[in-house]
Specification:
Largest sheet: 6 strands, mixed
Structural class: alpha+beta
Distance between the termini: 24 Å
Order of helices and strands: HEEEEHHEE
Number of strands: 6
Strand order of the largest sheet: 3-2-1-5-6-4
Radius of gyration: 14 Å
């Protein structure tokens, strides 16, 4: 299984995708859209705020990893791309960043989870 994670990570970089550590950032609001998630771009070190994670494109074996807790706490490095996608809240349309996940590369290091509230 670890070999599969390493392979998917290599394929992601070859396809121009990045590596991200998504997690809950502890921010809460009373009106959507709420920036309660963020993702650390490992290549640039930039934190993308207000990102949601789309796991529909993940291979089935990655979906079976109890991802909700791992994504909430920033415990995995996710291969994918950040896309701006339209979302509607209270009748208003917003263009929000979405991490389109294509694979789980590996467990995140403690130093990569620094932007997470639940690390």
């Amino acid at each position: 299984m670890i070999a599969g994670f390493c392979l998917s990570g290599a394929e992601a970089r070859a396809d121009g995708q990045g590596s991200y550590v998504p997690c809950d950032n502890g921010l809460r609001c009373v009106m959507a859209p709420c920036p309660s998630n963020s993702a650390l771009d490992l290549a640039s070190g930039k934190i993308i705020k207000g990102v949601s994670v789309d796991i529909d494109g993940l291979p089935q074996q990655d979906k079976a990893l109890d991802l909700s807790d791992k994504l909430y706490a920033g415990k995995v490095v996710v291969a994918g791309t950040i896309e701006s996608r339209p979302h509607s809240f209270n009748g208003k349309r917003y263009s929000l960043p979405t991490l389109v996940a294509t694979g789980i590369e590996r467990a995140a290091k403690d130093s990569e989870r620094g932007h997470c509230s639940a690390h």
